[in-house]
Design brief:
This protein is mostly helical. It has helices at about 20-45, 50-65, 75-95, 95-120, 135-150, 160-180, 185-205. Helix content is about 65%, strand content about 0%.
C-alpha cells in the first residue's frame, strides 16, 4: 500500500481569507450593532436613572438660556422630502441604492416614533410630568438626509457628505434642545439610530463593481 499523500499538505499555518460577501457586509453589521447598543445604553443611563435625568434636564436648561431669535427650527418634512429625492436619484443610478435609501430612512423615522411612543419614562428628576421624548423625530429627519447622502454619493464625495449630514443633524439637535422640544439624550439617541440605519442601508445596497472585493 502506497503512503504517498493524495493531496498536497498545507505549507503554512495561515488562516483562510474570509469570503468576499462577509468582508463586504462587515461595516454595515458593525454600524447596526453600534447604533442599537449605543441607543440602549443611553436610554438606560439618561432616562432610567435619577443622575441621568438630572444631568439631561440641566443641559437642556443651560442651552435654553441662549438667544433663540436667530435659531429657527427647520421643517422636518422638507428634510424628509429631500431624502425622498435622493432615493429617486439613487434608484435611477442603481436600483439597490434607491432601495437602500428608502429602507434606511423609513427605518430611522419609524423607529424614532415607535420608541418615543412605547418607551416609558419614570419621573425621577423631572420638575414636571411630561411624556417620553426619547428619541427626537426632528433630529431623526435631519440625520435621515445625511444617511441618504452617504448612500447615494460616490466614494470621492463621502467626506463632504458626512460633514454636511453631521452639520445638519447637529444644528437640528441644538435648536430643538434650545427651544426645549427635546433633551440632549433625545438628540444623541436619534444620531445613534441614524448610525444603525446607515448600517442597514449599506447591507441593502451592497457595493458596486468598483468597490467589490477581488479574489486572487
Amino acid at each position: 500500500m502506497s503512503l504517498t499523500p493524495t493531496r498536497p499538505l498545507p505549507t503554512s499555518p495561515e488562516a483562510p481569507l474570509p469570503p468576499a460577501e462577509d468582508v463586504r457586509r462587515a461595516p454595515g453589521r458593525g454600524l447596526v450593532v453600534l447604533g442599537v447598543l449605543g441607543t440602549t445604553l443611553l436610554y438606560a443611563l439618561a432616562v432610567l436613572t435619577y443622575p441621568g435625568q438630572r444631568v439631561d434636564n440641566a443641559l437642556m436648561e443651560a442651552v435654553g438660556l441662549w438667544d433663540r431669535t436667530w435659531w429657527p427650527v427647520p421643517n422636518p418634512y422638507l428634510l424628509l422630502a429631500g431624502s425622498g429625492v435622493l432615493a429617486l436619484l439613487g434608484l435611477v443610478r442603481r436600483w439597490r441604492t434607491g432601495l437602500a435609501v428608502a429602507a434606511s430612512v423609513s427605518l430611522l423615522m419609524i423607529s424614532t416614533q415607535v420608541l418615543k411612543a412605547w418607551l416609558p419614562r419614570p419621573h425621577l428628576a423631572d420638575q414636571w410630568v411630561i411624556d417620553n421624548s426619547f428619541p427626537s423625530g426632528h433630529t431623526g429627519a435631519a440625520a435621515a438626509l445625511g444617511v441618504a447622502l452617504l448612500l447615494v454619493v460616490p466614494r470621492s464625495w463621502i467626506v463632504p457628505a458626512a460633514v454636511l449630514g453631521s452639520a445638519a443633524t447637529s444644528y437640528m439637535g441644538l435648536v430643538v434642545t434650545m427651544h426645549a422640544y427635546h433633551r440632549p439624550s433625545d438628540v444623541i439617541a436619534s444620531a445613534l439610530l441614524a448610525v444603525a440605519a446607515l448600517g442597514v442601508g449599506l447591507l441593502v445596497r451592497g457595493r458596486g463593481p468598483s468597490t467589490a472585493v477581488r479574489r486572487t
